[in-house]
Amino acid sequence: MNSAARPGATLLVVSTAAFLATLDLFIVAIAFPAIRADFPDAGIANLSWVLNAYTVVFAAFLAPAGRLADRFGRRRLFLLGVATFTLASAACALAGSVWLLVVFRMLQAAGAALIMPTSLALLLAAFPAERRSVAVGTWASVGAIAAALGPPVGGLLVEASWRWVFLVNLPICLVTLVVGPRVLREFRDARTGVPDLLGAAGLLLGVGALAYALVKAPEDGWASPGVLVAFGLALLALTWVPWRSTRHPAPIMDLPALRVPTFWLACVAMAVYSSGFAAMLLGNVAFLTGIWGDSALTAGLSLAPGPLVVVIVARLGGSLNHRFGAGPMMVAGGVSFALGVGVWLWRMGVEPAYLTAMLPGQLLTGLGVGLLMPSLSGIVATVLPAARWGSGSSMVNTCRQVGTVLGTAILVLLIGDSPGLANFRHSWLFAGATGVVAAAIGVVIASRRSRDRAPEPAEPAEPELANPAPRPVGAAGD
């Protein structure tokens, strides 16, 4: 097939950009105390939107970003996303108020929304079918590592200034913008219509209102007018978006793809697991700094072993996924994730016990993440046709970000303003339950392995190849 001339270089470029887009979901959390110190008039509720605004915008615009990429070119939209992310990162570092920071974070999220689905679609087009599982495993592990590395990297950077949390993106983004046009090859599908941006706005409203209601309910009361209105808006918006998707030529939700049982089951599993992962990760940061009294730097470094396990396991997980299928790997990953959280429920107390309590749980949850992420991300290429890879991968990633929003909101709901050990036990129970649900869905997917296949060969569509001429000799592979 005619694919990108340099698969290995393509993997490096798109994974690096995806790493930054995901890193910024979590790296800011550990910088909250430093940001609040610079803006003492900002309350916790307002400051929380520095994180929530990014996640909600990211979730809402992943789907239209995938469709735009399918229509106008995956490389073009990928590079546009990196450029937007670069400029917004610089603006965040220079922000003079919390609300300016929130606005620039929203712009940053728009760039990240362009990066994520295009990076996976470019990756799938760059590798032959027999090598895609390993490549997707690497890409997925990069995203998981970025999410888990947020606290330790943030802790190190905050020692200098919270503004370095954003400035660190600039040199990597600039290198990507220089190297990307030389490495990536353009693919598009002219049959894809202009995406439903109004539907994206509806998703933005629905997810944002639901997160607002969950966060404000403990403070204002579940029956308070503001909370009830927010729940009502969320219900209306999240009901209206699927209805509109049945009537728009390029909807925010790819409903035909959701007719494939394995695909929609994977979307559900991704949303559920991601909510537990977000609650686990952010909850552990709060536990280490609040219950054990660690500094931000110490807490961040204490959470580093988990990502190291993900690095190793996800590469192996890609090969295992290719051999055994996504279902069995989801079962193994979900069970391992739940067992890791179970160790914390069993062993964690108010007295620090890192080696006998926190560390064993991290190793098991890291194993679970390394098995789950490649399995869930790689399903797009096995059950959907190539023309739907952009929209399909954006839907999987949208579910991931929606899960992150809800997991963060549920964590705030469970631990409250002055959390004690019992509050954190509730958050760990929630996280462990998501691992069990992911494993159960894996059992169902495993039973359907021979029934759900891509309706056409999983190869990139060639008629709209933007640069069909062969590359010069010497650029034919890695």
Folded structure, characterized:
The structure is a single chain. The chain has 478 residues and is an all-alpha fold. It folds into two domains: 7-182 and 252-447, MFS general substrate transporter like domains (Growth Hormone, Chain: A); 196-251. The chain contains 19 helices and no strands. The longest helix has 30 residues, at 129-158.
Give the biggest sheet. none
Computed over alpha carbons, the radius of gyration is 21 Å
- Report the total helices: 19
Q: What is the residue-mean pLDDT, rounded to a whole number?
A: 80
CATH class of the largest domain: Mainly Alpha
Structural class: mainly alpha
Percentage beta strand:
under 5%
What proportion of the residues is helical, as a percent range? over 70%
- Elements, N to C (H/E): HHHHHHHHHHHHHHHHHHH
How many β strands by DSSP? 0
The CA-CA distance between the termini, in Å, is 16 Å
CATH architectural category of the largest domain: Up-down Bundle
Brief overview, please?
By secondary structure, the protein is mainly alpha-helical.
